[in-house]
Amino acid sequence: MPIAVSLLAFAMTLAGGLFVLRIERHMALVLGFSAGAVIGVALFDLLPEAIELSGDASLVFVLVAAGYAVYHLLHKSVAQATRRGALGGLTLSLHSFLDGLAIGVSFNVSIAAGAVVAVGVVVHDLCDGINTVTVVRRAGAGDGVARRWLLADALAPVAGAAVGWSLGLGENALGLVLGIFAGFFLYIGASDLLPSASAHPDAGPRAGIATILGMAMLYGAVRLAQL
User: Is 88 exposed, middle or buried (0-12, 13-18, 19+ CB in 10 A)?
Assistant: First the structure.
């Protein structure tokens, strides 16, 4: 069951990334939307889930700050743009792996719990594909590199679901890891994508609206998964 669900996440991720590759002329809107989506993932999905799973809100917020600081240091220390793109692609792929891991672990708890987590993952994986291609291309990488990272991001939840289903992972540990990734995503969205969207020549008010729509879409996806 978790592997089958993760294949839907695979398809949604690919669809989102391939969509971006065909709309170059609207890149300002894509950057704005992606910024909102990434921030939305951190605030509406990863952070609440991390607190719920770990049961220690104070420690989670410390890990969020640590994740933000670590990503900032890594991002600034890498000189070549393509490596920055690889860093972003790797982070997003690892997040997708954790998505799949959450699916596998949740199905070990119960079918109902697995279904709730799976709905949220599958819905927002469309945005994951968009975000992966946008982050990698923003760093100066070509379409070929972006496609390879997109494929890695799409396969990651399938691998994560297999690992989570077969080995399992304590909820507390998973929650703490998600807290770190929330910090990563806040940096990617607020300190990288959002400034890039605002500085784009074609930005205008529409880029800001796209950012709000990105956040709203992720909020809606999370609420849908909670019904």
Answer: buried
Average pLDDT of the chain is: 76
Decide if 202 contacts 23 (C-beta within 8 A).
no
Instruction: Express each pLDDT in 14-72 by its tens digit.
Output: 666 666 666 656 667 777 887 888 888 889 888 988 898 889 999 999 999 999 998 88
**Does the pTM exceed 0.90?**
no
User: CA 65, CA 23: separation in Å to the nearest integer?
Assistant: 34
Please give the DSSP secondary-structure letter assigned to residue 127: H
- What is the phi/psi pair of residue 56, to 5°? -135, 85
Sign, Cα dihedral of 93, 98, 101, 106:
negative
Q: Is 216 exposed, middle or buried (0-12, 13-18, 19+ CB in 10 A)?
A: middle
Task: Provide the sign of the torsion angle of the four alpha carbons 153, 138, 83, 63, taken in this order.
Answer: negative
